[in-house]
Amino acid sequence: MNAQILINCGKNWFEFSKSKTGQIDYVGKWENNELPKVEGYQKFASSTFFSPSQFIYLEDTLNNNPKIYVDSSIDVSDKDTFDFLVHVGPLLSAIEAKDSLLAGELYISQKDSFEKFAHLSSFIMDSLSVEILFSLCYGKMKNVNPDDIPLIFNNAKKKLNFDPSKETLDQAFIRYMKNNEVTLTLPLVGTQFYDWEPEPSIFDKLTDNLGFENLLEKGQKIRNAKHDFYADLETVVQAEPYNPYDKNSILVCIENIDSKICGNPGLDQAGHIRALAAKVIRESKEEKMSFNSKLVSLSYSGIVVQVTI
After folding, report:
1. pLDDT tens digits, residue range 47-80?
2. Which residues are registered as beta bridge partners of 292?
3. Contact 108/121 with Cβ under 8 angstroms?
4. What is the CA radius of gyration of the chain?
5. Helix (H) or strand (E) holding 33
6. Comparing C-alpha atoms, which of 183, 211, 205 is closest to residue 294?
7. Is pLDDT at 244 greater than 70 in this prediction?
């Protein structure tokens, strides 16, 4: 039987079905060795509420424009169904990339649409619910109230075994992180106080001599090289117990781009993990001073790193 609804997110495909009663269901990630055949399917573009064009750098799993393929026998003209399908692709990519911050922000940005398919959305986000809750409620400068994101909070409470009559949410996270390895994506704060430059002017010169006749071929090579360059930047996340203002401080340093281009090693301070998140992380792993990390995304509004606790 042919797949009814497919969403292509770069290298990954995800399958949905629609019952005779009109119920949309998530079948799962396409795991077949062969790519799905979509000849004759209707093809829709994902909503532009999220686009890689908004970023200077975005890791591979997220760097795509999702496409929706619907079998000609399947009707998706219902507003709520169509709205859900054109918005869920980026969320699927974020879950696949284990980008807890982006997954949470995507959910919030289209909360009305996703909550009309609450069971489905909850199932899709379940595997990352603890991490999403932490990134939204502890990592961002603008607090998110857990009660305002019930689809995430209810799943996370089960995984955390959280009983508010016995402990605070902080204590639940500390207990959970003591016993589990957790990978989070977190935005940096205080970046305005440091000189790390995410997009130096030297990159502008790469295309100075690019003529029309070789725009596609050489332009693609330049784009690939630039992307690989960012992906290879050394990113260090480590405790800063000597910080006179906050003993739980966690500093983030990233390789200096200009120095790397010149062949010289060197890290620059780029920002910190937010104090609220850092306190929970440090209290859960008091003896751990450095954390495996990598750069996840760069935009004109911020820097995001992935940290394994």
Report:
1. 988 999 999 999 999 999 999 999 999 999 999 9
2. 308
3. no
4. 21
5. none
6. 183
7. yes
